[in-house]
Amino acid sequence: MLLLHRVARVKSKTKNGIFVSSFKDIFNDALVSASLCPNLHSVSSAAGTSGNGNRDIPRFFPWKIASTLSAGADGMITKEVASSFKEWFKSGSNPLYGKIFQILRGARDDQEIPYRPSAADLALSRLGLRLNESFVLDVLRFGSKDVLSCLKFFDWAGRQERFFHTRATFNAILKILSKAKLVSLMFDFLENCVQHKLYHMPCFYNILVMGYAAAGKPIFALHLFGKMRFQGLDLDPFSYHVLLNSLVEENCFDAVNVIIKQITLRGFVNEITHYLMLKSFCKQNQLDEAETFLHDLVDSGKKLNGRMLDLLVGAFCQSGNFERAWKLVEWFRDLQIVSMEHVYGVWITELIRAGKLESALQFLNSSKLDGRYIPDVFRYNMLIHRLLRENRLQEVFDLLTEMMDQHISPDKVTMDAAMCFLCKAGMVEVALELYNSNFEFGISPNTMAYNYLINALCRDGSTDEAYRILKCSIYEGYFPGKKTFSILASALCREGKLDKMKELVIFALERNCMPNDSTYDKFIYALCRARRVEDGYLIHCELNRINVVATRSTYFVLIEGFIKSGRGDIAARLLIEMLEKGHNPPRGLFRSVILCLIEMENMEKQFFNLLELQLSCQEPNSEVYNNFIYAAGRAKKPELANEVYHMMLRNGIQPNLSSDILLLRGYLYSERISDALIFLSNLSQTRTIGRKISNVVVVGLCKANKTNLAFDFWKHLRDKGTVPSIECYEELAKHFCQNERYDAVVNLLNDLDKVGRPLTSFLGNVLLYSSLKTQKLYKAWVNSRVGQVETSQSSMLGLLIKAFSGHIRVSQSIKNLEEAIAKCFPLDIYTYNLLLRTLITSDMERAFELFDRLCEKGYVPNKWTYDILVHGLFKQGRTVEAKRLLEIMHKKGFSLTECTQALILSNSVHMRS
Fold first, then answer.
1. What is the pLDDT of residue 707?
2. DSSP state letters, 758-788
3. pTM (2 d.p.)
């Protein structure tokens, strides 16, 4: 209640000072409340550590703040907090400057026709601007990040009556171009000035020299300077110093000394000259000489520029010598000959850059206490951003409220930092409100603010808002980080908003913005899963267009998607492309593509085209041919398999054992028994028919329902002393049981026991299922035991057959029966389904106990598990329980068997009658 009372105070107090006090109360209460909620620890830990020292509580409070703010009815608290932030932001922005750049951007972006100067000219003229050097410099400084708009304003201002650009305004626009690294544009600008003499000024050459110097081309500037001297012209003091600064920046120290001499000869030496000389020492890492030079200036009584001390202190700090830098600061502070405000700013800046945040905060607090120094907005911004990076949100909040208390006007960087803080603190509604109102302040968020806002909205479940803001960020010229893009992409894919995701990805690709590979993988996977594989292929083609190599997993997803949709031609095209890109597809993927291709129309031509393409992509070998033989056999096209087999021979590649087995299986799978036997006969003339081929024949004949022939072949193997594979025993036993030839089944089991082979789960389940159906197997088993010596396996197996045949009451000893089965063969879910079938007719409670037990043991119930239980419940008239279980079954995607559906139908007919 106390917390809600304090929150409510915000609603009635919106002025800056009162707002800060109330807002701080909210946060402090949230901190205390969070510290009393240990269950939030796991949530805060997931957000990462917050740094060193006693900062555990600040990690908790963002989530507490979010819940606190949500307590206000209809979002009133959120609106009041956002309103207070807006008032502060407005204090640091000039709406007139924002209006100027809005006009310039609108004339450039909103028109479908090329930009017309008259469109912006008219709108700017209506503002009634009073142009002077100071105003133009302020406008250029405000919009320095929007280079094109700055150039258009500079051009417009130069064409206005009663205003002429000065050296300072030229220097400002050149600096903007230089910082944007638009050197070529700067050269075009200067050449345009030279060719057209747009600005007829006595100091025209001075401006050109400054321009080339600002462009980082001091050699060009020196040549132009030489041309001036040849014509009897000279630079003014300002241009000399711009040229000298450029030479220092580009490390042209020989030329630096020459220009200094020229400045000295002309009597232009001033504080700026001394500053640039000191800067030259620092650039050459001659810090001892720089310090001596500075002390000599002090001793000579010359007037010092405070920036000189700033420069040397910064140089000492950047070299890691903070102690020496601080001694210099203290010495000049005691002399009281220069203003220390900027020096303190440099000191705290270097502490922040070096990661010495504790020292920076300590210095800041001590300076405020004795009134020595109040940081400017730039230093506050630096410290806030560094603290944000380390999740030290309490200190960030303290600094923001401190800026409000000190009436420090925020700039664009402050506003971005505040938005980031609000997002991290769980106050995404406030951050969103500020973002939606950003045009009021004439600003647009930077990349970091966009990233934080989008991430926070995704975390908050507001994916549509995050999507809208991401599109806006791209239109503004920003593109979010790969991690942010991936987070939003994952959210859109997870929520099934694939059209938005598709639009966003294409939008990014058209601008050559490159999210990471995993983002495309997720999106293409989501499209294929939603059966929109064509859209996934479209994205893949866009990636190819910009020479981005798709990952191996992307090819997998696309190929499998086209296989499922029956488009083997595109799947084959992707398969070849995958090979060309250096990815090695597995055998299974090859075979699936070929199999899909065979099932299409005009498949034969495409089948052999794919074979030729693959042979051209890699060294021909038997593995390539084997994949095509396998696929043709699986598609019941043994004539194609045979043609590939002979093509291999014609190309000089000897078929290996796998080739023979695959072709033989193709004949058997297609039930072309005579062809299979002819091939086998021909094969016996070139190679020995060993155990592997014999096993293939037995299993293939069984699956072709030629059990007698298979059994004859099996006996032939046994007569030779060869032990067939366990699969031969399984297939023969299954078909003998289906044909009720239980004596033959028992003989197989005896032989299996004789050769020492263990009973497999498949064989055991076949025997138990047959025992449930009929007692004939049990009788055949009993008859076969006469005169036989019992082994532990045969004894246990006989007990199981007896139990499942109904000669032992299963429900009373189900656990013992489980243990007996485990001793005989490994249980699987099919075995448990059989056990459930034995229980549902007599004891449903024990059936459910068995169901719980199999789940506890890690077995996953399948369709038949649920069907057996539903069948049993309906059989006993427990309709309500059966319908409840039926709902669970449907949620898992399972359907009932025809037998159970018939039982439910008969029950409903009986109830109606």
1. 92
2. PPPHHHHHHHHHHHHH-SHHHHHHHHHTTTP
3. 0.56
